[in-house]
């Protein structure tokens, strides 16, 4: 319960939904829908009174992005370093790395109700990539890869429950879902326009470039 409350406080502090609680985030029970102001005794007036510096804005965007994808600081920084070595726009390369993670693709396909749940399911070996069991959430997928629920896990309650709601979940254009077969395919690498994560990634780049 304490952990759940902390997750809701993070969304309220950020001022946006970070989608940390799965189905609850889409329901009227979502904390940011019920109390759309910062947590704490003075939360209702704090956001309006406080002037945030450029550094504060950059830090907030970085923290939001890190929490959305459920990553620690060290791992998140390693993605940024790798993205900065790539040709093109660093922010877009960073977003592409994050979206290509196996746990994120499992979540995007509707096999899990949140990225946190997706990570747990992957760690427990409930998914295969191109027919081989993979239990590493950070495994980066490529165009053409097939992600499927393993045979032994097809009756697992969390996956079945998530798939039953998958009809109302918009699968990104760079992925294809076959719910009857409990599998999905990576059609292409995601473009920034195909990623609906509400974050200003250029601020994250500026934060690490200081």
Describe what this molecule looks like in 3D.
With 210 residues, this protein is an alpha+beta fold. The chain folds into two domains: 2-98, Ribosomal Protein S4 Delta 41, Chain A, domain 1 (Orthogonal Bundle); 101-189, RNA-binding S4 domain (Structural Genomics Hypothetical 15.5 Kd Protein In mrcA-pckA Intergenic Region, Chain A, Roll). It is built from ten helices and five strands; from the N terminus they run H-H-H-H-H-H-H-H-E-E-E-H-E-E-H. The chain has helices spanning 2-14, 31-34, 43-49, 54-68, 73-85, 90-99, 102-108, 115-123, 157-164, 201-208; strands at residues 127-129, 132-133, 146-149, 175-178, 183-186. Strands 2-1-3-5-4 form a five-stranded antiparallel sheet, covered by helices on one side. A hairpin with a 4-residue loop joins strand 4 (175-178) and strand 5 (183-186). It is globular, with a radius of gyration of 18 Å.
Q: In short, what is this structure?
A:
This protein has about 210 residues and is α+β, with helices and mostly antiparallel strands. About 45% of the residues lie in helices and about 10% in strands. Helix 5 crosses helix 6 and helix 6 packs across helix 10.
Amount of beta strand: 5-15%
Largest sheet: 5 strands, antiparallel
Give the strand order, joined by hyphens, for the main sheet: 2-1-3-5-4
Task: Decide which structural class fits the backbone.
Answer: alpha+beta
Per CATH, the architecture of the largest domain is Orthogonal Bundle
Integer average pLDDT = 85
Q: Count of DSSP E strands?
A: 5
Instruction: Name the shape in a single word.
Output: globular
Element-by-element helix/strand order:
HHHHHHHHEEEHEEH
Q: Flag low-confidence runs.
A: 1-5
Task: Report the span from N to C terminus.
Answer: 38 Å
Radius of gyration: 18 Å
